[in-house]
Q: What sequence folds into this?
């Protein structure tokens, strides 16, 4: 129900579309989590009032369509280069809010060098890393985060540790870098996890706005189409098999309040 | 009078960039252009600018993309193998219409090649180099002074056309040390309403090169084409002792500066030789080359490679005059006497009037 309709019927409006989220229909596949994650990002843009100060670096993959939904300035990056592009933006405009929104192929395969070095330089940038363990846009090929045994179009016999390696845990890798200030992994499969994801986004935004440095939110997400699953089964896989290999939690929080 | 300094060619590039208002430089070390990042790393922080030694050439050109998208004047530099790595980013700069300056103090190839002067990157520079149907303006200095002047011009042309501009030198032009007059830069860079600065007081905007809807990319490519046609008016060249020449030599960059002395040597012997030096190699000065061919009746192209620009010369001449070629692959730098001798040899072989 729209806010206007709610008011008309004299009902209390408890949830509305964030101002930063355009009022357009989603094009994502049924059960895809990108829409949910877009909303979480938009909520924090509104929450911190930075819509007019945002310049985002979009990446390549389904994530590129961020600019169709978020009502902010966006620069499209070549595949894997979002964090180099964002570095350029942030260094030129240090008082703007700069974030990247990248998939697993983009951030953890072709863009590994850019990702690691931006973190290591401690760039005051926020990263939203959507890990759905597959290349979505290109039609379901193996990703660096594809789980062992997972069948994809380029691992038709399932991912094997021997010769293909095991999935990369990027949050853990990033947390080892001195330059990374806030590193966390969340999922968006349940109300409980969504609340944690919202809090993590908020914290990541806070890091940049306070000038505390590089913040990184890995979000476990589904891709029912390329997983060849129903939305329900895909959603369950995120909190099950995915979270079992990619443990949820905060790996680094340099400015965490000190316990007495 | 403007201050004169004795500097290396690479430093002249960096000085020209700073004079033109460049405050952001992203690069990666590679010989023979290291004096550019070294100079920038020392000077930019003093001016409130940013120097980043990136993790790769790929990262540095993408930092250029990001900073230039905010409307700032931004530069990167490298040498041949590094320029190959920057081609992806250059294609995106063209596709997204973001201005930036890329300097190639080229060395020799293919592969790791060597650090000798070479003009083996002419094709890569003038044909785009990356994927897609695009063009970059390419300026080819032949002195340290021109390194300074043309780098300043490169920023103006980049902004004028919202397109990357390449300064194509080589190891000789980067390492040579000679006097440079530090002419002040007096232009006012244009407003950039397309820049991404956050959407305060205006609708949000986007810079991209992805066009998926039916027909959109066709329109985008035709629009780019129209811009490239307009860029053709920037063709520049220089003539030396060409007025009554019976043979006009055509050369750019480092070879052209050696050939000036060869022309003098040949003139002293009574040979009526002149020189045409393209200052822009894209757009190529077709009309000037055609006029030179008509006036002299014969052209000779000399390059530090096995024959690249000669193709553009022949395209310009359209078969209406003989075009000879002498190539020096990398490894040795010919002296003015060497080249004068080769010109005489070609001349004796006939083909002219």
A:
């Amino acid at each position: 129900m729209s806010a206007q309709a709610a008011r008309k019927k004299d009902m209390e409006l408890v949830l509305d579309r964030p101002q930063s989220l355009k009022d357009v229909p989603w094009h994502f596949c049924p059960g895809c989590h990108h829409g949910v994650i877009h909303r979480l990002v938009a909520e924090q843009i509104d929450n911190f009032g930075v819509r007019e100060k945002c310049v985002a670096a979009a990446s390549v993959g389904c994530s590129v369509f961020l600019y169709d939904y978020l009502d902010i300035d966006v620069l499209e990056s070549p595949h894997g280069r979002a964090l180099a592009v964002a570095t350029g933006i942030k260094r030129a405009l240090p008082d703007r809010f700069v974030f990247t929104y990248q998939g697993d192929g983009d951030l953890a395969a072709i863009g590994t060098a850019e990702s690691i070095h931006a973190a290591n330089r401690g760039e005051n940038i926020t990263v939203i890393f959507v890990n759905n363990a597959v290349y979505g846009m290109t039609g379901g090929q193996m990703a660096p985060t594809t789980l062992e045994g997972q069948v994809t179009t380029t691992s038709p016999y399932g991912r094997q540790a021997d010769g293909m390696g095991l999935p990369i845990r990027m949050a853990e890798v990033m947390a080892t870098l001195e330059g990374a200030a806030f590193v966390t992994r969340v999922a968006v499969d349940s109300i409980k996890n969504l609340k944690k994801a919202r809090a993590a986004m908020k914290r990541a935004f806070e890091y940049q706005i306070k000038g505390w440095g590089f913040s990184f939110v890995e979000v476990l997400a589904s891709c029912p189409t390329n997983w060849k699953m129903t939305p329900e089964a895909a959603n369950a896989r995120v909190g099950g098999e995915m979270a079992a290999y990619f443990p949820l939690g905060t790996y680094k929080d340099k400015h965490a309040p000190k316990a007495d | 009078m403007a201050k004169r300094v004795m500097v290396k060619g690479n430093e002249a590039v960096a000085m020209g960039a700073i004079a033109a208002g460049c405050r952001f430089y992203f690069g990666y070390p590679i010989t023979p252009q290291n004096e550019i990042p070294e100079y920038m790393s020392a000077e930019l922080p003093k001016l409130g600018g940013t120097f980043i030694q990136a993790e790769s050439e790929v990262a540095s050109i993408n930092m250029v993309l990001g900073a230039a998208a905010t409307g700032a004047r931004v530069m990167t530099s490298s040498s041949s193998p590094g320029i190959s790595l920057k081609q992806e980013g250059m294609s995106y700069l063209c596709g997204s219409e973001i201005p930036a300056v890329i300097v190639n103090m080229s060395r020799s190839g293919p592969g790791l090649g060597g650090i000798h002067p070479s003009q083996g990157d002419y094709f890569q520079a003038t044909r785009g180099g990356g994927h897609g149907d695009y063009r970059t303006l390419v300026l080819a200095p032949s002195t340290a002074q021109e390194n300074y002047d043309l780098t300043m011009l490169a920023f103006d042309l980049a902004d004028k056309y919202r397109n990357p501009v390449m300064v194509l030198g080589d190891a000789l032009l980067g390492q040579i040390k000679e006097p440079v007059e530090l002419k002040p830069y007096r232009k006012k860079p244009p407003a950039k309403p397309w820049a991404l600065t956050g959407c305060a007081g205006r609708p949000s905007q986007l810079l991209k090169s992805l066009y998926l809807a039916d027909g959109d990319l066709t329109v985008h490519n035709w629009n780019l084409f129209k811009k490239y046609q307009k860029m053709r008016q920037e063709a520049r060249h220089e003539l030396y002792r060409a007025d009554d020449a019976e043979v006009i030599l055509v050369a750019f960059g480092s070879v052209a500066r050696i050939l000036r002395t060869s022309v003098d040597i040949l003139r002293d012997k009574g040979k009526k030789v002149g020189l045409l030096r393209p200052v822009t190699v894209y757009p190529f000065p077709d009309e000037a080359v055609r006029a030179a061919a008509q006036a002299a009746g014969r052209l000779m192209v000399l390059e530090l490679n096995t024959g690249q620009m000669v193709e553009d010369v022949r395209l310009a001449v359209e078969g209406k005059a003989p075009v000879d070629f002498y190539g020096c692959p990398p490894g040795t730098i010919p002296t003015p006497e060497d080249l004068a001798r080769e010109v005489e040899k070609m001349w004796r072989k006939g083909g002219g009037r």
Summary: The first strand of chain A starts at residue 54 and ends at 58. The beta strands of chain A are 54-58, 73-76, 97-103, 126-131, 180-187, 214-220, 249-253. Chain A touches chain B at residues 51-55, 57-58, 64, 67, 70-78, 81, 84-93, 96-97, 113-114, 116-117, 121 (CB under 8 Å). Chain A has a mean pLDDT of 96.
